[in-house]
Structures are given as structure tokens and as C-alpha cells.
Design goal:
Layout: E1 2-7, H1 15-28, E2 33-38, E3 54-57, H2 66-79, E4 83-86, H3 88-100, E5 108-109, E6 129-133, E7 142-147, H4 152-157, E8 161-165, E9 170-172, H5 177-182, E10 186-190, E11 196-200, E12 207-210, H6 225-241, E13 253-254
Parallel strand pairs: 1-2, 1-3, 3-4, 4-12, 5-6
Antiparallel strand pairs: 2-13, 6-9, 7-8, 7-10, 10-11, 11-12
Length: 261
């Protein structure tokens, strides 16, 4: 069986979280899949995540544990576990990559304030801000995204342009994009003004991060192609390695089926 770690601090006020049961129901029509909610404090221990077939870092920041969200992205990245990071999941995947790969250990997220949420002193001039407040919030917006030829996201969507839904107010600082790119992060989706909206890691079984929220596509009963692609990658890992998820970590809760049939 394929198992998914849904990493995030579950809340009825987060629209993406409310869609998860519907999305899982739809995936189960074609795939033997089970899913467990992993609160971000529980995700601080990589052992809580290693047995899963896929790790999905969901929207809903600021997280209860920034460290847990970053650890979820790092565990998926370093152990070859299929990863999907959406909205805040995108942001924290970039934090992990900057800190662990790019030699930028003080990289921080502006949403957590200026007192160094990652345990380091924040630079007073904002030089350490990797994730910054967007000049124009994307919360509640739809916008076009242009996709790089030959990219994973283009292959999954089957098009070079898509229109996606957002609920986000933060993105990657333009002054640090070159550093991330130089160390291997590929930015494969941009809006009409050239702002980054999608990132992926070539050579990884499946590592995709989007600033938009594919969870909000349609009514949830027909999962977005990126979610289906993530599930397919997880199923492949499960079939190859016999991976099985675990509910042993403190606070882990199985994702219930939806009431809608």
C-alpha cells in the first residue's frame, strides 16, 4: 500500500486542508493509498517520516513548528521520498535547500518575525530573508503560470501555460534566486511578470514545489494533475520498496474519508 504523510497543522480554517478527504477519496478510486496527518512538531523527528511512500507539505503557515516543516522537506529531499510542497510547503522547501545545500544557514522566513525563528539572530537589514512578503498578495487570486519546456510540471500538466489558484502572501526573494539555482534548484514556473511560482529538483524521484495551491482546483473530486503525479510517484516507491507508513509518531492521525459519496 502507498502511504502519504500529510505534514501540516490541520485546521478547518485552511481551505486546502478541507479538500484533502475529497482528494484522497478520488485517488483511492485508482490507487491503494492511505494517508496520515503529521503535525509539524511531530515532523521534527525524521524517523516519523521515513517509512512513508510520499511526503506532502501542506499550506497553513505560520506552522506550529518551522523546524518540523523544514525537516519534512529535507527528509524527502535527502532520502529520495516523493515530495509535494504547496504554498507554505514551497516556501519551507526553499528554506531547507538554502540552509542545507547552499551554505546559507541563517536563511529565514519573514512571516516568523525578526527574532530568528531558525535559532539564529536575524540580520537587521533583512539580508537573511529568503522568503519575503509579496508586493501584491496572491490570497484568493487566480493567475497564469508559464512552464519551462521539458520540466516535470510541464510534463504532468501537458501544457506550457496553466491558470492556478493561490492563497499566499509570501515568496522567494529575488536577490537569492541565483544562489538556489547555482546549487541545483530549478525554477520551472513563472507568472506573467517573471516571478517564481514552481520549483523542482532534477534527479530526484519526484520533488515538486508550487506557490499555488493545486488542492483548490475544481471541487476536489478530480485531483489536480500534479497531485496525481505525486501519488503515482509514491505508488512506484511503495511497489519497489514495500514502503509502508506508520502511525507510531506522537500526534499522527489517519486522514478520514470524506462524507461525500
Amino acid at each position: 500500500m502507498m502511504t502519504i504523510a500529510l505534514v501540516g497543522d490541520r485546521s478547518p480554517s485552511v481551505r486546502a486542508h478541507a479538500r484533502i478527504p475529497l482528494i484522497l477519496d478520488a485517488l483511492r478510486e485508482h490507487t491503494d493509498v492511505d494517508a496520515y496527518w503529521i503535525p509539524t512538531p511531530a515532523a521534527e523527528d525524521p524517523a516519523a517520516l521515513r517509512d512513508f511512500s510520499g511526503i506532502w507539505l501542506l499550506p497553513g503557515s505560520p506552522y506550529a513548528s518551522e523546524a518540523g516543516a523544514v525537516t519534512a522537506a529535507r527528509t524527502a529531499r535527502t532520502e529520495g521520498i516523493p515530495f509535494l510542497g504547496t504554498c507554505a510547503g514551497f516556501q519551507h522547501a526553499m528554506l531547507d535547500f538554502a540552509r542545507d545545500v547552499c551554505g546559507f544557514p541563517t536563511a529565514r522566513h519573514a512571516e516568523y518575525g525578526t527574532d530568528g525563528a531558525n535559532g539564529t539572530a536575524a540580520a537587521t537589514d533583512g539580508a537573511d530573508e529568503l522568503i519575503v512578503e509579496l508586493a501584491c498578495s496572491l490570497a484568493g487570486h487566480e493567475a497564469a503560470v508559464d512552464l519551462a519546456p521539458g520540466s516535470l510540471v510541464e510534463r504532468l500538466l501537458g501544457t506550457s501555460r496553466t491558470v492556478e489558484r493561490y492563497h499566499c502572501g509570501y515568496g522567494v526573494s529575488a536577490k537569492h534566486l541565483a544562489l538556489l539555482s547555482e546549487h541545483g534548484m530549478r525554477f520551472t514556473g513563472h507568472d506573467e511578470s517573471g516571478e517564481v511560482r514552481v520549483a523542482e529538483l532534477p534527479g530526484h524521484p519526484f520533488f515538486l514545489a508550487t506557490l499555488f495551491q493545486p488542492e483548490l482546483a475544481g471541487d476536489g473530486t478530480d485531483p489536480h494533475p500534479l497531485i496525481r503525479g505525486f501519488a503515482a510517484a509514491g505508488a512506484k516507491r511503495a511497489a519497489a520498496a514495500g514502503a509502508r507508513g506508520t502511525a507510531a509518531a506522537a500526534g499522527v492521525r489517519r486522514a478520514e474519508p470524506s462524507a461525500r459519496r
